């Protein structure tokens, strides 16, 4: 029961948060500002994927038993990359060339956030959108009980496995790119010391462009996986900024490994604090004994409060995060 309602869902949720947090930490590492428009960038990428999915389904194209959205995901990634590059060209480049302060960048990103939010709601509306097709379960709770003879079953949804596998592949590809390629090494050098990297002949505009492209691809992938696993709603990605920022700061802002670590800590914290352990404790106790209380520390309606508490505690106790992150010097 613990695995079914805590371990598996939290692992999938943590993988989704990790992809989002990696995008936030990459932009901070390169441009040194908190991108508050990241949630809407995720939403825009997922929206484009949904529209492409509907188009493929209308033409009768599918990859059953897998979701059609996996075929449409490259469209969502290209749409998110386009928005990210246009945003940098018409918003952030001016402030970057004038060496504006991080707070100026952050305020500009808030304005961009509202602009994208309105555009997304104008195109697809504010309603929930279910776009997952194909097989729902790899194994249902009933099938698990039949196979094992246990009284409690484990249901593993196909989208949870897809989320974990895709996130693992994307993370491995990202770290390979950062460690092994010339462009990745240039990004790390620019992040470590901007002035010294410029003296070494690194093109800053190219570094920034690649950073935005990677961030947009991560954002679209994370949002699509979240929408497949749960549901797509434009408002939800603005709310997800809180756990994403909490994961980024907890792990150490500007540290990709820390972002992944922080994402899973936040995910497991949210799920465990809001889960009702009544039946779990009842199964561990004497026969036919169940506690009267639900043994739930916090209602699921307040799960984002867990991220807020983590964020506040980290900022008060260890603002550099688990892995010592970067400090803004401008």
Short description:
The chain is an all-alpha fold and 330 residues long. The chain has 14 helices and two strands, in the order ααααβαβααααααααα.
Cα separation of the termini: 50 Å
**Could you give the order of strands across the largest sheet?**
1-2
Q: How large is the share of residues in beta strands?
A: under 5%
Radius of gyration computed on alpha carbons:
21 Å
Question: What is the oligomer described by this structure?
Answer: single chain
Overall 3D geometry? globular
Largest sheet: 2 strands, antiparallel
- Name the average pLDDT: 91
- Compressed to H and E, one letter per element, the order equals HHHHEHEHHHHHHHHH
Unreliable segments of 5+ consecutive residues: none
Helix content class: over 70%
Structural class: mainly alpha
Number of helices: 14
Write down how many β-strands occur, each being a DSSP E stretch of 2 or more residues.
2
Report on this model:
With 330 residues, this protein is an all-alpha fold. It has 14 helices and two strands; from the N terminus they run ααααβαβααααααααα. It has helices at residues 2-31, 38-58, 69-97, 102-124, 141-148, 158-180, 182-192, 194-199, 204-229, 236-239, 241-251, 256-274, 278-284, 303-317, and strands spanning 137-139, 156-157. The chain has a two-stranded antiparallel ribbon. Helix 1 runs antiparallel to helix 9. The mean pLDDT is 91.
């Amino acid at each position: 029961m613990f695995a079914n309602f805590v371990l598996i869902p939290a692992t999938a949720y943590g993988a989704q948060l990790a992809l989002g947090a990696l995008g936030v930490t990459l932009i901070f590492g390169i441009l040194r500002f908190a991108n508050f428009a990241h949630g809407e960038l995720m939403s825009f990428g997922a929206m484009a994927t949904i529209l492409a999915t509907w188009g493929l389904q209308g033409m009768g194209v599918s990859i059953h038993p897998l979701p059609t959205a996996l075929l449409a995901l490259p469209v969502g990634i290209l749409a998110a990359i386009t928005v990210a590059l246009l945003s940098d060209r018409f918003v952030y480049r001016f402030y970057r060339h004038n060496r504006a302060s991080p707070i100026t960048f952050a305020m500009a990103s808030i304005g961009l956030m509202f602009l994208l939010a309105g555009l997304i709601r104008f195109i697809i509306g504010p309603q929930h959108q279910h776009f997952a097709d194909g097989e729902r379960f790899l194994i249902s709770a009933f099938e698990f009980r039949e196979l094992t003879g246990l009284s409690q079953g484990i249901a593993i949804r196909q989208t949870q496995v897809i989320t974990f596998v895709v996130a693992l592949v994307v993370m491995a590809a990202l770290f390979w790119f950062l460690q092994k390629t010339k462009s990745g090494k240039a990004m790390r050098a620019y992040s470590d010391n901007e002035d010294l990297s410029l003296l070494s002949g690194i093109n800053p505009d190219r570094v920034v462009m690649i950073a935005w492209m990677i961030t947009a691809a991560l954002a679209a992938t994370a949002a699509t996986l979240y929408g497949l696993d749960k549901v797509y709603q434009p408002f939800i990605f603005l709310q997800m900024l809180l756990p994403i920022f909490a994961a980024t700061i907890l792990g150490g802002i500007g540290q990709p490994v820390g972002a992944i670590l922080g994402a899973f800590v936040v995910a497991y914290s949210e799920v465990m604090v809001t889960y009702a352990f009544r039946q779990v404790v009842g199964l561990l106790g004497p026969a036919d004994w169940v506690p009267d209380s639900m043994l739930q520390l916090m209602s699921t309606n307040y799960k984002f409060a867990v991220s807020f508490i983590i964020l506040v505690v980290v900022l008060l106790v260890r603002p550099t995060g688990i892995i010592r992150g970067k400090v803004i010097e401008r």
